Amino acid sequence: MEKEEGKLTDVSLKELSRKLEEFSKERDWEQYHSPRNLLLAMVGEVGELSEIFMWRGEVAKGLPNWKESDKEHLGEELSDVLLYLIQLADICGINLADAATKKIVKNAIKYPPKAQ
């Protein structure tokens, strides 16, 4: 992991997975982490993420008109979704990085660039 302006960057999915597993074990929460429960928790977080954008209309790339506190809240909700997704993939035995890489390749074949 590198540090950039006081923030951690380049954290791998594997590292996040390890931290989540440790966090859950320390709290004895693993018993609640079935695929169904993790999926429903993630869907709830997607709902919270959606609320941030509700009634704002179209939003410009980079969120130039947003308050810093709104951006921070957005980052927290995006993180919640990501962390539940990682846990769901782990509990289902899916290597998320590998699956995502394969999906990008598959999409590139399915949707080739326009010929110029």
From TrEMBL:
UniProt KW Metal-binding keyword: yes
**Keyword terms of this UniProt record:** Cytoplasm, Hydrolase, Magnesium, Metal-binding
What EC number(s) does the entry state?
3.6.1.12
Q: Where in or outside the cell is it found?
A: Cytoplasm, Cytosol
Instruction: State where it is primarily located.
Output: cytoplasm
An example Gene Ontology biological process: DNA protection
- Give the GO cellular component terms, alphabetically: cytosol
Classification via CDD domains: NTP-PPase_RS21-C6_like (cd11537)
Q: Which GO terms describe its molecular function?
A: dCTP diphosphatase activity; magnesium ion binding
Gene3D superfamilies in the cross-refs = MazG-like
Enumerate the catalysed reactions: dCTP + H2O = dCMP + diphosphate + H(+)
Q: Which residues form a coiled coil?
A: none
* Cofactor annotation: Mg(2+)
Q: How does it assemble?
A: Homotetramer.
Which function does this protein serve? Hydrolyzes deoxynucleoside triphosphates (dNTPs) to the corresponding nucleoside monophosphates. Has a strong preference for dCTP and its analogs including 5-iodo-dCTP and 5-methyl-dCTP for which it may even have a higher efficiency. May protect DNA or RNA against the incorporation of these genotoxic nucleotide analogs through their catabolism.
Alphabetical list of PANTHER family matching this protein: DCTP PYROPHOSPHATASE 1 (PTHR14552:SF2), PTHR14552
Stated name of the protein: dCTP pyrophosphatase 1
